[in-house]
Amino acid sequence: MDRRSFLSSALALGGLAALSAPGLVSAATGDKGSKGSAVGRLVRTDEEWRRRLTPEQYEVTRRGGTEAPYSSPLNDEHAKGTFLCVGCNLSLFSSKAKFDSKTGWPSFWQPVSKRHVREKEDRSLAEVRTEVLCARCDAHLGHVFDDGPQPTGLRYCMNGVALKFVAGKA
Ligand SMILES: [Zn+2]
After folding, report:
1. Which residues 6+ apart lie within 8 Å of 113 measured at CB?
2. Ligand 1 centroid – CA 138 distance (Å)
3. How far is the CA of 79 from the centre of ligand 1 (A)?
4. 116-140 confidence digits (pLDDT tens)
5. Quick one: residue 133, left, alpha or beta (phi over 0 = left, psi -120 to 50 = alpha)?
6. How confident is the model at residue 38 (pLDDT cuts 50, 70, 90)?
């Protein structure tokens, strides 16, 4: 790479850094070229999250906590509708993919879209788990395991406190 193209790359990077300022960045204009960028990113300070969320929502979504099993009313929610991220309202799961896992946490065999969730290796316990986060606001949602029902064989084990249910078309 010659000096001039190095400089223009550096400028391009500077431009991207400016776009990552707090606030909603439109994926259509701000995030060209990177894979899985169908949703815009929502970035808020820790202080803002504390203000907007209840202490329980904050503990789970921003600090990776886990609610007590059978504590969420959404565990027993069987109506048709969509489960949204409590932090940013992104649609995450449809009632069509919900099943009773008998774990005490709302469970789904697939997300609305693979692009709406982000997966990350979690080594916080002896067993290595796969953490599931909201792709837009990085809220911790729960974990995904491979002991779920068909057709996917996956079990998205979610904290109900990280979700918001909206009844309607599933
Ligand atoms: Zn979110």
Report:
1. 38
2. 6
3. 22
4. 999 999 999 999 999 999 999 999 9
5. beta
6. low
Mean pLDDT for the chain overall? 85
**3 state DSSP class of 55:** helix
- Nearest CA-CA partner of 57 in 145, 168, 134: 134
- Amino acid in the structure at residue 122: D
| Cα torsion through 50, 53, 57, 59, rounded to 10 | 0
Distance of alpha carbon 156 from its chain centroid, rounded?
Answer: 11
Q: Where are the alpha helices (DSSP H) in 21-163?
A: 27-30, 46-52, 55-63
| Predicted structure pTM score | 0.78
The encoded tokens of residue 31 equal 């995030």
Who surrounds ion ligand 1 at CB < 5 A? 85, 87-88, 90, 134, 136-137, 139
- How many Å lie between the centroid of ligand 1 and the Cα of residue 22? 15
Based on the residue annotation, tell me whether 88 is a catalytic residue of this protein.
no
Say which DSSP state 126 is in: S
Ligand 1 mean position, distance from CA 137 (Å): 4
According to the model, what pLDDT value does residue 170 have?
79
